[in-house]
Design a protein that fits this description.
Pfam families: F-box. It comes from Sparus aurata (Gilthead sea bream). InterPro entries: F-box-like_dom_sf, F-box_dom, FBX38, LRR_dom_sf. Among the domains are: 223 residues, Leucine-rich repeat, LRR (right-handed beta-alpha superhelix), CATH 3.80.10; 88 residues, no CATH class. 24% of the residues lie in helices and 19% in strands. It has 14 helices and 18 strands. A 14-stranded parallel beta sheet has the order 3-4-5-6-7-8-9-10-11-12-13-14-15-16, with helices on one face. Strands 1-2 form a two-stranded antiparallel sheet. Strands 17-18 form a two-stranded antiparallel sheet. The termini are far apart.
Length: 503
């Protein structure tokens, strides 16, 4: 922006002896430079940091306003609130240090997501490196927390700046399977972090981190022989462990389960391909339920857990009955006996809504690797068979979970007559969403009778259901919106996905 210019004035212009006043074309007025420094600093609060830094070179007054703003700012976001983006490119160690030195009162730095960081400085080469970032962060005496997604950077912060908190949700961005060798992280006991999402990372062990509330492990290789020896996270609310390569000896998962029982506020427990000792959860629940262990669970997921028993799942469900609202059960536990036992317990599940029978993790459904290849990469030896639940078991499901709204059944070949799922005690009165996948043996006529008797049903999803496409649907379509054929019992159209299995 150029310097201020003097506005033009009205000048008389004579023509043919006639005196007239004609306004010359006025030059554009610079309103920004007329604002005070205080107003400009207030405007900067609503602008991304990248735009603020660009204003420094527009005029002297704007440069002064930017300097004043940076001198008092306490919270900075380098990604403008977009956690999935990367910070502006072009930074070097010197330029980043110069920027942070202008912010002596900085307390929280968000969006520190560089696309690439050198591991060490190179003499004579201007680079953006981990030592350079640490030096810049240490130049802020009031710094309390940093948000980043870089594995090596967060480990360096833990080692050299242990007083700094890791803000927001830490999730590394270069996770993959098979796990890259360079993706590794050592978690210290003193780590000041509340949410840790690791995807495709080599981790020696999971220690006792007192502040940790949410722990998500996907494709994580635990390299120590006993990675849960010191596991104790009393503030934990979410624990998800999916397809991780860890110890094959199921006894080494005993500290993990006992440590989870000590987290009295645990709300979400997801175990996929975790080979814990069968019956272990039952004994831990018996010892800890009186003191609050597992009583606040609202989500329970068991998938491809090799040694899991019905009593392990049943004890968890019974303990968490008061708050449970979502349950996903692997095929080996999708049995009539599980729900018959729950019925005999005469429990109430006032908040329960979602049930997934025959649950298989998406990675295992979409993975193109063979079973032997997965085992070679350290995943537990698990081969899932179809669920063996029958019509009798499904009939008991709604007698146990009378408030169920969302039901998904995957690969249960022993289901034949859905009309038999309805009894005087099991009316499915609140069922809103029904999804059936690969249940080939279900009879179409019985299924139609079942659908017509559901008063609250809004959505139906059928996938790979019928060996021969029913006549009422188009053979050439894989997604059909069917009009409401029973307006007295249904409140909305049915949405059907018909991917027929013609084998």
């Amino acid at each position: 922006m150029g310097p201020r210019r003097k506005p033009s004035e009205l000048q008389p212009v004579g023509g043919s002896g006639e005196g007239q006043l004609v306004l010359r074309p006025s030059e554009s007025k610079d309103y920004i430079n007329e604002l005070s420094h205080e107003v400009l600093c207030h405007i900067f609060r609503y602008l991304p940091m990248k735009d603020i830094m660009c204003m420094e070179c527009l005029s002297r007054k704007l440069r002064e306003a930017v300097t004043l703003y940076l001198r008092v700012v306490k919270v900075v976001d380098l990604c403008a609130g977009r956690w999935w983006e990367y910070m502006p490119s072009g930074f070097t160690d010197n330029s980043f240090l110069l920027l942070l030195k202008k912010m002596p009162d900085l307390e929280q730095l968000y969006g520190l997501h560089p696309r690439y960081l050198e591991r060490r400085r190179v003499r004579g080469y201007e680079a953006f490196s981990i030592p350079g970032v640490l030096e810049a962060l240490q130049a802020c005496p009031s710094l309390l927390g940093v948000e980043t997604s870089h594995l090596e950077l967060v480990e360096a912060i833990w080692n050299y700046m242990p007083q700094v908190h890791i803000l927001g949700k830490f999730r590394n961005r270069n996770g993959a399977f098979p796990i890259p060798a360079e993706n590794k992280l050592t978690i210290p006991i003193t780590a000041k972090i509340q949410t840790l999402h690791l995807v495709g990372v080599n981790v020696p062990e999971i220690p006792c981190v007192s502040m940790l509330r949410h722990l998500y492990l996907k494709w994580v290789r635990l390299t120590k022989p006993q990675p849960f020896k010191d596991f104790l996270c009393v503030s934990l609310r979410t624990f998800v462990m999916r397809n991780c390569a860890g110890p094959t000896n199921s006894l080494k998962y005993v500290p993990l389960v006992t440590g989870l029982a000590s987290a009295r506020n645990l709300e979400q427990l997801e175990l996929v391909r975790v080979p814990f000792l069968g019956g272990l959860i039952q004994h831990v629940v018996e010892d800890s339920w009186r003191s609050g262990g597992f009583r606040n669970l609202h989500t329970i997921v068991f998938g491809a857990c090799k040694n899991a028993l019905e009593v392990d799942l049943g004890y968890l469900i019974i303990t968490a009955a008061r708050r449970l609202h979502e349950l996903r059960i692997q095929p080996s536990l999708t049995k009539d006996g599980v729900f018959s036992a729950l019925k005999m317990a005469e429990l109430e599940f006032p908040q329960f809504e979602t049930l997934h029978l025959g649950y298989v993790d998406e990675f295992l459904l979409q993975c193109k690797m063979s079973h032997s290849e997965l085992v070679k990469y350290g995943l537990a030896d698990v081969i899932e068979n179809p669920g063996i639940i029958t019509d009798i078991g499904i009939k008991v499901v709604n007698e146990v979970f009378s408030n169920i709204k969302y039901l998904l059944i995957y690969n249960c070949p022993h289901l034949h007559n859905p009309h038999h799922w309805i009894t005087d005690q099991s009316r499915w009165s609140r069922l809103v969403d029904l999804t059936l996948v690969r249940c080939h043996a279900i009879k179409l006529e019985s299924f139609s009778q079942f659908i017509e008797s559901l008063p609250s049903l809004e959505f139906i999803c059928l996938d790979q259901m019928f060996r021969e496409p029913p006549k009422v649907y188009s053979v050439y379509s894989t997604k059909i919106i069917v009009g409401n054929t029973n307006p007295d019992t249904c409140n909305a159209p049915w949405i059907c996905h018909n991917n027929y299995d013609n084998s």
